[in-house]
Amino acid sequence: MTRTSSVYEACQSTLPINTTLSDTAIQKQMLQCIASSNANSIDTFFLIYASSLVFFMQAGFAMLCAGSVQKKNVQNTMLKNLLDACGAALSFYAVGFAFAFGGSYEEDNAGQTTFIGTSYFFLVGMDDIMFWMFQFAFAATSATIVAGTLAERCQMTAYLCYSLVLTGFVYPVVVHSIWSPQGFLSPNRVDPLWGCGFIDFAGSTVVHFTGGLTALIAAYLLGPRRGRFYDFRGRLLETPNPMPGHSAALQMLGAFILWFGWYGFNTGSAISITGPDQNKIISIAAVNTTLAAASSCFSALATNYIIAERRTGEGEFSLKAAMNGCLSGLVAITGGCAVVEPWAAIIIGIFAGLIYLFSSNALIRVRIDDAVDAVPVHMSNGAFGSIAVGLFGSPSRLELAYGHSKHVGLLYSGDGVLLGAQFCGVLFVLGWVTLLMLPFFCILNYFGWFRSDLLNEIAGLDTSYHGARQVDVDGVDMELVAQLRSRQKNSRNRFSQSSAEPNLSTSNLDGSDVTM
Length: 516
Fold this sequence. Notes:
The chain is mainly α. Helices cover 62% and strands 0% of the residues.
């Protein structure tokens, strides 16, 4: 430990030695110095607290993903979650933060509108580096959303490349456009779009919609897991195979960790805790976070019960529906947690649960495989959360959080300007992410760097990539796998197959068919 001077001593040292100031002026200067120093320290600690909670969400994602996959793929899934955090840290440090906030708070750039940041590369010239830490945790969250969607069939190299590209360039441009004072959609601009800008307090669109849309694009190109919608000969199944995860306990633990971390996610977006009325902004954000999660949980659980009863004659209290409904409410309220009233948060949560169920069923109908339902939770409800601000944005809450309330929620004003701005923001992110990530994943897929091959998928990615040598894991005949590997030993195809329907015959050496 190093000895540091007290705040009083530090402030006293700033006073001129031979001064003609009166005692009152000196006291006033000392008080201002002490107050400013204490405020900075308190705000820094607040960001440390919030950043820690948001980063702890990585553990929640890891547990949720691990519980949602088969045992033979647990190590692979956990490592991908770890690589998300590590890759995001390095890429966001090198270029991501610069693209997101470079030059945003320099006096020379005040009032300008830019598409991308141009300074603070490798944090050079950045004074408030704790702000980087908080924003890094957000970037890592956006990247991790994709991990569960692509579980059990994605190559390690492809996943690491995606994580670096998303956090290093794609996500930072979205951040700059919406959260930087120089962004064309930012409500903090000198002259915001249509007098209100795009309101996304904690990232329903910036973080969750960006990550969820990327997951949808990747899942579509990657194809479903073997046996999900097609059998191992590539024939369409009459009824999709649910392929449930191996541990409901891990899934529930992950959901609770995520809910816990969300309090740092939403309240921490206030950035400062010492400014005027900041306590009110933080308090309403925490309350709305709780109410939206709770109402969405009940909404999804009850609706799923009714649907099951209508279909089968017997209702079902689904843990999966309740858990993902809860997370959907958290995503939906993220964008407006500080600008809507508590009663509106409950309504947003109710609709979030319904949207999750509809989106999840829609994915199954079009045969897109999402192992953890990240697309319905994050993409669908991320977009809805931003649109909901255009409906429920409260005049008093908007004034408190952003300093202007010329255009508010449709239910309050009826002019629809804020609602239109919210649609514009969602459409911009939709176009930007699709424009970059669709060609990126197509390139990976074309060169065979995207999907694991058939044998690796059957044996389990833990065995294929991480040296695990389990016997008969999850019903897999390891002896058969060894035989199949032997038959492919001299094959020239070193790359993965990109299609979900396998071309490789899975027959025994004697020619008889095998049922996996």
